[in-house]
Amino acid sequence: MHSLGKTLYKLCQWNTCGVLKIPPHINCPVFKQKLSACNFSTEAAQNEEYSILEEVCQGDKEIEHKLKVLMLEVELNRQEGHLVPENHEMKAKHYTELLKLNSRSKRKKYLEFLFKICRKEDNRKRKKEEKALEFQKKKETIPPKNIPFEQFVQTYSLQHNNFFLRIRDKTINNMFNNKLIQAMRFGQKLIIDCGYYNKMTDVENANCAKQIMMLFGDNRLAEDPFDLHLCNFNKNSNLAEMLQKKIDTLYNPEFPINIHEQSYLDLFPKRNLVYLTPHCKEEMQYYDHDALYIIGGIVDKMNQEPLSMAKAKQENLQMMKLPLDKYLLWTGGSGKSLTLNQVLNILIDVKNTGNWEYAFRHVPRRKLMKMEENEIENVRNDLIRQKQKWTPNLENVHRFSFNKGPKEVKKWDNRKKIVSVTSLFRE
Question: Does the entry feature the keyword NAD, yes or no (predicted)?
Answer without folding.
Answer: no
